[in-house]
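Sequence in, structure out. Go.
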Amino acid sequence: MNLSQDDGLCSSITNIVNLEDGRILLSGFAGLNLFSADSVNPDLTPPPLVLTRMTINDEPVGPPRPLNGSGSLHLSHTQDVFEFEFAAIDVDPRGPAEYRYQLEGYERDWVKPTDRRYVRYTNVPPGNYVFKVRAASAWDRWPDQEITIAIAIAPPWWRTLWAYGGYGLCFIACLFGAYRLRLQQIQLKQAAEMEHFQAEHLADVDRLKSRFFANISHEFRTPLTLILGPIQKWRNRAHEEAEEKDLGMAERNAHRLLRLINQLLDLSKLEAGAMKLRASRMNIIPIVKGIAYSFESSAGIRGVALNVHVEHKEIAVYCDRDMVEKILSNLLSNAFKFTPAGGAVKVEVSELTLHPPLLIKVGEFVEISVADTGVGIPPEQLDKVFDRFYQVDTSQTREHEGSGLGLALVKELVELHHGTIQVQSEVGQGTTFTVRLPLGRSHLREGEIVEVPESVEPTMQGEGALVDKAGGGAKEGAEPEQARGEKPIVLVVEDNADVRTYIKDYLVPAYQVAEARDGADGIEKALETIPDLIISDVMMPKKDGYEVCRTLKLDERTSHIPIILLTAKAASENKIEGLEIGADDYLIKPFEPKELVARVKNLINLRRKLRDRFKASVPLKPGEIAVTSMDDVFLNKVMTAVEQHIEDERFHIDELSALVGMSRKQLHRKLTALTNQAPGEFIRYIRLHRAMDLLQKGAGTVSEVAYRVGFSDPSYFSKCFRQQFGNAPTDVRNSSGLAENSGKTTQIPS
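Output:
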């Protein structure tokens, strides 16, 4: 306990004595104090703590709260500003009070105000809080006093539980609506499938009509021939793209109709026994590979891998080439139709020997299998796939089907060859058709054999063929330039080895053919060899044909090389894309090999004519000689380098190569391609035309002019000058009217 003068003690206490009876004696300057400690009973009654004022949004509300009281406030979300004022009443002046307060849930710690007895809160978010205020004696004369008020600030209506419940109901309603919509879509789809299913049963009726169609098919051929003839003639004369497009569409559909009619005729002939086998001995491998690779572009477009595997380079078979092509084309067409993107089609050719009990006697066969990873055929329908007009009873396959004649015709043609065809399939895994044709000729009747062997030349039957006359060379129209006894170099960039070989076979008699297996390899070999022309496929790994063309056309070393792009993308925007990046020609698969050879010849001849123009014409203006701006830049760079060193008689090819940033070989190939002149001849060409200019202007004697243009021997200069212009330099210098001289003079750019 603490006592002071206010409690009656004397001032300036100097001595304290504890007496034997337990009393305490205090002495000081103002006197003595004698008392017993047990007799001192201070007043420990605490003063009342009250709220003297309370405001909400600066408006006074409610009476003050009593000491140790508690209460509650319920406010709306707009009543977020409130103030409390508090005080301890009748406090003994000898014992001052200290205050502390806290808004629990809003403040983490107690706040001790200084020289104030109020607190103000603003922008308090909705929630539940407890306001606490405490009063304590500074000298611990009485216990702490506290008032608590529970404050609840209601949230806005859109954040209430009712609002969240409404949100949940809206979400559930949306889900239910989506479910109902999906259910309706499924019901509509099922109804459509049911109608489709009913339509499939109409195929039975189509079978009854097949004989009628076969009978009138003969009558269709003549009108179709008369239709196709004028269409082809008008298409050749069409000048506008719209006309050509319409005529092309008409021609394609006319050919499609003709194929259907031919199938009907073939079936009717087979049924009537009028179609005869005309078999001759031939190597079946080129036929199979030719037809298979004719689908390569179509496979690329569909995103389906095509694999061809043969065990032998040659298997001699007695067969009718036209019939075998129809068999393979129909099987491959079906395989690609029912194989989704990412799948694969595999063609295998092998020899096998079958023993009993598979056969009555031992026999050797060639086996051709066409396997796909498509949708497959249900087991209960495998025995019907070769029926006429039969269509597999699934919606997945129905969307791809045509007339239903193809497999029926295949089976008839295989049996006409005394062979067999089998089908194995698993739904979702794929289908494999296996054709077996007997080897030798003992199984054939005498009238089925053609004594004079027919040429083994597969025709273009596919949907994106790069096959026409396999194995043939560039026999017609291939008259490439024979510069300096060297054949022009053609680089073939193609990822398929068989296709590269196929193109090479047509070009190799007249050209040196280099090969590249993909786009990146093609760019590398183009920079290495600087070919005269490049043939590039568009769809390739690593770098496609567009990137190859773009890269080479932007490189100064290869910008002059003509590039032909090969692609199955027949859309006009794809062709425009190829031409815009600098391709010189664009061939759409399938194409005639003769057409490819002709285009190669024309582009190389065009370059030759440009070189001849450069050599014959005196102007040294690259814009009139080259084809692309990159070539302009290159020729300007070369001529500038020669002009800057024109007086240096030691300036030669190595220095020129270093100045233009090319190897000696690259410079030779590039200059020869653009000007038909080797670098040394080009340097002399520039020197002589500068000399002609100087002589016409009377800039000095013949010897002086010879030295000024880099000739150390005036007699050698005169010899070269006469070879170039047909006149002696003295005649040019001495003649009058030099400006009107025979048109052989030039203006050399400064």
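Check: Confidence is low (pLDDT under 50) at residues 393-402, 452-485, 617-627, 736-750. The radius of gyration is 51 Å.
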